[in-house]
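Hi R.,

Here's the input for the zinc ion complex you asked about:
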Amino acid sequence: MLTNQYEQGRTFMGRLDYKTDLLEEINKICIKENIKTGFINIIGAVSSLKTGFFDQEKKQYIHTVHQSQTPLEISSCMGNVSLKNGKPFCHIHIVASDRKGLCYGGHLMDETTVYAAEYIIQETIGEELVRELDEETKLPLWK
Ligand code: ZN
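And here is the predicted structure with zinc ion in place:
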C-alpha cells in the first residue's frame, strides 16, 4: 500500500474548445502548468468516445469500446495527475450517457472528441508520484 499526504496547490478551472481531443487537452494543460500531482474533474458532452478496458487475464488493453459519432453527456469524468517518464501524466476514467441515459464507461483514451467540457484540475503539493511498470499487474502504477 502507498499513502502520501498532500497540501492543496493551485486550482485550475476552464472550458475546452469544441472538437478538441479530451485527453490530449487535459494532458496539455498539466504539462503547460507543470502540474505534477493532482486530481481532475470534468463534465460536459462528447461527440465521440473511446474507452479502454484492461483484460486482467491477458494483462493488456485488449478491448476498446468506441462509440464513434455518438453524442454523449459526460456524466462523470475523473482522474489524477502524476509523473510518467518524467512528465505530468493524466489517468482519467469516464462515464458517458446517451439520450436514454444508458452509460458507457472506462479508461479514457485518445480520440474522444469534445463537444463541450468544463474542467477542474486541483494541484496537490507533496511527494512526487511516479508511474512505473508493475510486474504483477503489467500496469504503470505508482511506486
Ligand atoms: Zn485506467
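One thing worth noting: Residues 22-32 form the longest helix (11 residues).

Cheers,
M.
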